[in-house]
Design goal:
- There is one protein chain.
- By secondary structure, the chain is an alpha/beta fold.
- The protein has one domain: Rossmann fold (3-Layer(aba) Sandwich), CATH 3.40.50.10130.
- The longest helix has 21 residues.
- The termini are far apart.
Length: 106
């Protein structure tokens, strides 16, 4: 699974923004397992902004598939539909990670 964006926050959190068309369950799970050895928190965001359906109902079906995959593997899969959602998520994660890092004296 190739990420659109990979953000490393304070060497504790990795955020990967993934195109839904790139979603391959087993490959992404292996990638997350590898990342979990280095990072405290791994966040996978699926970018549905400007999503172009290749067939009818593809967006809904992909969101459902991603959500089910996340639940099955005890992972939180986040789907975004607009850039404001992405900004809000990134801002809050960054502020929380920064506050947490300060609190543990790193």
């Amino acid at each position: 699974v190739k990420s659109i964006i990979h953000l490393n926050l304070l060497d504790r959190v990795i955020i990967q923004v993934i195109s839904p068309h790139q979603f391959v369950e087993d490959v992404l799970l292996k990638k997350i397992t590898l990342l979990s050895k280095k990072y405290h928190l791994i966040i996978s965001i699926f970018d549905f902004v400007d999503f172009n359906e290749e067939f009818r109902e593809e967006e809904r079906l992909l969101k459902q598939k991603i959500t089910n995959w996340g639940q099955k593997n005890d992972l939180q899969a986040i789907s975004i539909d607009n850039s404001e959602e992405l900004y809000f998520i990134l801002k809050n994660i960054y502020l929380h990670a920064k506050k947490e890092k300060k609190g543990i004296g790193l």
